[in-house]
């Protein structure tokens, strides 16, 4: 595959980190000429079939996540087309696949017809949203042929400074809060109880918005709230062979914060990385 013009691809498809992470996935596991299952995303056909030259691509989206994420009234990420007929993943039939396909559902609903069907699994910014991750990993292994590889790069992790993953919310004063412009102080979602955070947020915004933020931080099912150390153990116990399990994008944190978090969450050590890179392989035989 020729070296792509990253900037041109970003402009062509109006995407940002997606292009960087896609090309990194191509570099690490190879996607060109392969049958690929994209878990938790739906990259455009022109990009993955045309520019990347994958042989076949199936994008899997979870509609409940998008329903809640978009309920704030503001665009979050890159949602799929939610209008019209929706093909269900549980009923997917490879005999009816085109080069590029979009299904709705969860990887845990993998149909028998897709056992061993894919050469590779690609996923970005999705694993932190999968509640039944141990089961999901087993289904991903089931979906791959022997020797097939999985590439996932995801975050922010619950254990990181902005792991609350707050969607964009507009308060009565017109302020827009999100995980990239958060009224929640770094690591506060781990350090204080919900009502303590509510009291703090009332100094930043109105009580109605403060209550909504507290819901998204502590109760919403749109994130799984696994710590980085939890992911490591889940992966180690899976059917995959681990090629890489690498914390990504570290941030500086003061020793007192690290010490307090370790005391509050025994057995957890890594709080300073916001993301995790996984490269896994389904064993042969």
Automatic annotation (TrEMBL):
Residues 101-151 form the Methyltransferase type domain. SUPFAM superfamilies: S-adenosyl-L-methionine-dependent methyltransferases (SSF53335). It comes from Geomesophilobacter sediminis. One of its GO terms (molecular function) is S-adenosylmethionine-dependent methyltransferase activity. This is Methyltransferase domain-containing protein. It comes from the Bacteria. Keywords: Methyltransferase, Transferase. The keyword Protein biosynthesis does not apply. Pfam families: Methyltransf_11. GO terms for biological process: methylation.
């Amino acid at each position: 595959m020729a070296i792509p013009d990253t900037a041109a691809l970003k402009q062509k498809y109006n995407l940002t980190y997606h292009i960087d992470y896609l090309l990194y996935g191509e570099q690490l596991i190879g996607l060109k000429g392969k049958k690929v299952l994209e878990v938790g995303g739906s990259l455009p056909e022109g990009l993955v079939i045309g520019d990347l030259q994958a042989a076949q691509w199936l994008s899997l989206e979870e509609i409940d996540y998008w329903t809640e994420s978009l309920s704030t009234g503001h665009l979050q990420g890159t949602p799929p087309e939610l209008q019209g007929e929706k093909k269900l993943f549980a009923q997917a039939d490879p005999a009816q696949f085109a080069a590029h396909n979009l299904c709705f559902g969860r990887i845990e609903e993998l149909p028998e017809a897709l056992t061993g069907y894919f050469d590779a699994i690609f996923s970005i910014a999705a694993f932190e949203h999968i509640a039944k991750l141990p089961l999901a990993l087993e289904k991903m292994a089931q979906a791959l042929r022997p020797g097939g590889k999985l590439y996932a790069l995801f975050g922010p992790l619950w254990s990181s400074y902005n792991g609350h993953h707050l969607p964009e919310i507009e308060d009565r004063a017109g302020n827009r809060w999100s995980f990239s412009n958060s009224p929640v102080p770094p690591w506060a979602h781990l350090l204080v109880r919900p009502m303590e955070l509510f009291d703090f947020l009332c100094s930043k915004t109105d009580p109605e918005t403060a209550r909504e933020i507290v819901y998204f931080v502590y109760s919403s099912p749109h994130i799984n709230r696994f710590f980085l150390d939890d992911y490591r153990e889940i992966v180690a116990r899976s059917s995959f062979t681990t090629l890489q399990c690498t914390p990504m994008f570290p941030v500086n944190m003061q020793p007192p914060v690290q010490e307090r978090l370790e005391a509050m969450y025994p057995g957890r050590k890594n709080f300073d990385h916001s993301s995790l890179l996984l490269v896994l392989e389904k064993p042969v035989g």
